[in-house]
Amino acid sequence: MHVGWLTYLYQFIVGGIFFAAGVIYVIKSGSANLKLSEDRKWVIALIVGYFGLATVFAVWTILAIHS
């Protein structure tokens, strides 16, 4: 494995754990009610944004390694 992947994996695994913990905390504390469509849209947007960013960084890492 190329060393460029280690930073990617660290960022999105460790960061993902904190991200997931934050989202779970917000939902469990009642700050986001998933029964409300507006709150559900925001939570989905956050999750899609996280995976979208992970995808963009993965492509960026692939391009950097192969150039």
Structural account:
This protein has 67 residues and is mainly alpha-helical. It has one domain (3-65). It has two helices and no strands. The mean pLDDT is 94.
In short:
By secondary structure, the protein is an all-alpha fold.
Unreliable residue stretches: none
Q: What structural category do the secondary elements indicate?
A: mainly alpha
Shape: elongated
Q: Name the helix and strand elements from N-terminus to C-terminus, one letter apiece.
A: HH
- Sheet-strand content, in percent, reads under 5%
Chain-averaged pLDDT: 94
Percentage of residues in helical conformation: over 70%
- Biggest sheet overview: none
- How far do the termini sit from each other? 16 Å
Number of strands: 0
Number of helices: 2
Tally of structural domains:
1
Radius of gyration: 15 Å
Question: What is the fold's blueprint, element by element?
Answer:
Elements: H1 3-28, H2 37-65
Features:
67 residues, mainly alpha
